[in-house]
Design brief:
Layout lengths: L2 E4 L7 E3 L11 E8 L4 E10 L3 E5 L11 E3 L4 E14 L6 H4 L4 E6 L6 E10 L9 E6 L2 E6 L3 E6 L6 E13 L8 E10 L1 E10 L5 E12 L4 E11 L18 H12 L40 E11 L4 E21 L12 H6 L7 E9 L9 E7 L2 E8 L7 E8 L3 E9 L5 E5 L2 E16 L5 E10 L1 E5 L4 E4 L10 E10 L3 E14 L1
Parallel strand pairs: 3-17, 15-21, 19-27
Antiparallel strand pairs: 1-12, 2-7, 3-4, 4-14, 5-13, 6-14, 7-13, 8-9, 8-12, 9-10, 10-11, 15-16, 16-19, 17-18, 19-20, 20-23, 21-22, 24-26, 25-26, 26-31, 27-30, 28-31, 29-30
């Protein structure tokens, strides 16, 4: 047999030989996988056990701590152990010092002609004073030759004699206790593991001026194992997987030291920073530039669960490393164009202004921008999960925005592009007068009256509906234009109330409008 192999990519290939005769080996099959968006997958395996006894499975799971579970009418104990398996060295080698000895080889050397030297490999040597990779020694027809390994570009093995190596291999043992009958028994092994995820995307078509078409798209990436004819669910919501980054002691790849280290890291992170709080990998429920606010239609429940949704992706076959993208559902909805102007709150809970360096850390939260936006109600029969929404019209790209969790029928607002032809200006100033001192919780605060003004100018040839959201800290005194005042949830631990004023106005072409408001705020003295 002639085998050509690149010297640079030499690797060890091990082919499992038949197991020992005293092993009772059974095979399991993955029947379903539920995919979260943070790389965690809920796996369900099925295995048929002939009856009472001990049975070995080669596919040892790598479960998340606390998630491994076996369901069966029989009483089953699980254990992970190792067994000695004879493995055959394949036709490519891992250790040149051992694997090439005694082999008939052809060595191709660097150079214009790619000269070839043939002979029987003796071994590889690297003298102490050598600076390179060493020398491959061969017995050629002209005698023994020492060839610089740095000059060898390929090794052709003309004759190969496979070798056998015995190694320890992890195995999952299922011990079926007697007393449940003769069998056979079906057992289901369920656990959480890492290596597969899905990402949501939305395509919003605004070609029709009154009705949009929205399509939810899913992208699945499988880095777990080969999946053959497996039912796949796309899971959306914000599940509490507290130990997602702790491998179970049942995992063959971990040790007690690693387990306790990961467990300690998890316990020292009670806020859940380690892992699954990213808004794209889980869910986000914000109301500015996302959904309409706390008010909305009643969320439909599936099996008594309203805030976690399993959407079937069908039965699929995905090899390890495969990625697939497909449409999940399409629906239509009436929509309206608006301009949404969000004016952020620039005060800290103690009433002082937020420092510039803090604004630079989260510029999106303090961006004072008017956006062209679309507003519609989720027409899909299931919640819109957190995902990237791409907006197009007549095949042309308009904008892209992250969509937040929205229940069916709930209002959704997506920012499309900056409203450059709608000019805005906002200004505030402290009103003169006496500053009353208020004593709260051992601290002195100055009570300040603030007057604010918002100005919008429509430089378009068509009328514009503008939604102005002014977020502020303090107590409202008065405001022009009858805005709606609402409390913000981030003011729970604030000395001042955290509130938002919302104006919705119709602005004719080539016109402007000014709105004023006044409020008091307590400032740390």
């Amino acid at each position: 047999m002639r085998v050509m192999m690149s010297f640079v990519l030499v690797s060890l290939v091990l082919v499992a030989a038949p197991v020992r005769a005293d092993d009772v080996v059974v095979e399991s099959r993955i029947v379903s996988v539920g995919l979260f968006k943070n790389g965690v997958a809920a796996v369900r395996r099925e295995v048929t056990l002939p009856g009472p006894g001990s049975f070995a499975l080669d596919d040892v799971p790598e479960p998340v701590h606390g998630s491994y579970w076996v369901e069966s009418p029989a009483r089953i104990e699980s254990r992970v152990t190792t067994r000695m398996v004879d493995l055959t060295l394949g036709p490519t080698a891992g250790d040149l010092r051992q694997d090439l000895v005694g082999r008939r080889v052809n060595l191709r050397l660097r150079g214009d002609a790619f000269a070839t030297v043939s002979g029987t490999a003796v071994g590889i040597v690297r003298p102490a004073e050598a600076t390179g990779a060493g020398f491959v020694v061969i017995d050629a027809a002209t005698g023994r030759q020492y060839l610089d390994l740095d000059e060898v570009v390929a090794i052709e093995v003309v004759t190969w004699v496979p070798g056998v190596r015995t190694v320890a291999q992890p195995v999952l043992i299922l011990d079926v206790a007697p007393g449940a009958g003769e069998g056979p028994f079906v057992a289901w092994i369920t656990y959480l593991t890492h290596g597969a995820a899905w990402a949501a995307g939305y395509h919003v078509d605004l070609t029709d001026p009154d009705t949009l078409t929205i399509t939810q798209q899913a992208t699945i990436r499988n880095e777990f194992v080969d999946l053959t004819d497996v039912d796949i669910d796309l899971i959306s919501g914000f599940p509490n997987i507290e130990f997602a980054h702790v491998r179970s002691p049942m995992a063959a790849s971990t040790s007690l030291a690693q387990f306790f280290a990961e467990l300690s890291q998890r316990m020292n992170d009670p806020g859940g920073v380690l892992g699954n709080n990213d808004v794209l990998t889980q869910q986000l429920a914000t109301y500015a530039g996302g959904t309409s606010g706390p008010a909305g239609p009643t969320a439909p429940e599936v099996d008594g669960r309203a805030d976690i949704h399993h959407q079937s992706a069908g039965r699929r076959t995905l090899k390890r490393g495969d990625t697939v993208t497909f449409d999940v559902a399409t629906a239509a909805a009436a929509y309206e164009h608006i301009v949404e102007w969000i004016i952020p709150d620039t005060r800290r809970p103690d009433g002082r202004f937020i420092d510039e360096y803090e604004r630079q850390r989260d510029p999106e939260a303090y961006r004072d921008v008017a956006w062209d936006a679309i507003r519609f109600r989720n027409p899909l029969p299931f919640p819109m999960t957190t995902g990237v929404a791409t907006i197009r019209a007549a095949g042309r790209f308009l904008g892209q925005r992250m969509s937040s969790w929205s229940n069916p029928g709930e209002s959704v607002t997506l920012h499309v592009t900056k409203a450059l032809s709608v000019r805005t200006r906002h200004a505030e100033q402290e009103e003169p007068g006496e500053r009353r001192i208020v004593f709260i919780g051992g601290n002195d605060f100055r009570e300040i009256d603030v007057r604010g003004e918002v100005l919008v100018c429509n430089h378009r040839a068509t009328p514009v509906r503008i939604v102005i959201r002014r977020r502020f800290s303090g107590d409202l005194i008065e405001a022009e234009g009858d805005p709606v005042e609402s409390l913000r949830e981030d003011g729970v631990y604030s000395i001042n109330r955290r509130a938002e004023l919302t104006w919705t106005i119709e602005l004719p072409p080539d016109s402007e409008r000014t709105l004023t408001y006044r409020y008091t705020v307590l400032v740390d003295h």
